[in-house]
């Protein structure tokens, strides 16, 4: 729990600073495209598909990125701190760390990635002392109702399977 809360605080703080500081990723993204991660000896670009993705998908939609990155970091932090949807928060935190690393930013990303992996590897136990204790049983029962309802429709005159 302490590791999860520490990691959550790191994400929450990063997101909060970006939300209040007029975050703009356009210069960072332009630099990541102009100076991609490359091999020191051959100068070959190591992640050419990612650089292409940044240039042709992310940069044209930088306004969305300027919204999603700070809000995402903030929500990841809240999820980890309160222990709500902990696995999803840890997963998306690790994804952001990988995206930042592929763009060439080392900073605290390897450390946060390692901590995120530990929280993610803990599975549902990571949020046991938190909202997941109450939230996951509700989600499971809701999912069971949805899937049971589909099964009843199938048994009561729905489409019949092609193979028996």
Automatic annotation (TrEMBL):
PANTHER family: DOXX FAMILY PROTEIN, INTEGRAL MEMBRANE PROTEIN-RELATED. The keyword GTP-binding does not apply. It is found in: Membrane. The chain crosses the membrane at residues 74-99. It holds the Pfam family DoxX. InterPro entries: DoxX. It comes from the Bacteria. This is DoxX family membrane protein. Keywords: Membrane, Transmembrane, Transmembrane helix. The keyword Transmembrane applies. It is a multi-pass membrane protein.
């Amino acid at each position: 729990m302490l590791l999860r809360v520490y990691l959550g605080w790191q994400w929450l703080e990063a997101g909060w600073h970006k939300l209040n500081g007029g975050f703009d990723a356009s210069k960072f993204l332009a630099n990541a495209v102009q100076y991609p991660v490359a091999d020191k000896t051959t100068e070959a670009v190591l992640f050419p598909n990612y650089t292409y993705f940044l240039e042709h998908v992310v940069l044209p939609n930088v306004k969305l990125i300027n919204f999603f990155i700070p809000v995402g970091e903030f929500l990841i932090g809240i999820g980890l701190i309160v222990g709500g949807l902990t696995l999803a928060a840890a997963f998306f935190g690790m994804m952001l760390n990988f995206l930042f690393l592929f763009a060439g930013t080392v900073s605290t990303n390897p450390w946060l990635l390692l901590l995120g992996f530990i929280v993610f590897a803990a599975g549902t136990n990571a949020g046991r002392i938190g909202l997941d204790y109450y939230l996951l049983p509700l989600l499971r029962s809701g999912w069971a109702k949805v899937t049971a309802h589909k099964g009843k429709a199938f048994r009561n005159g729905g489409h019949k399977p092609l193979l028996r």
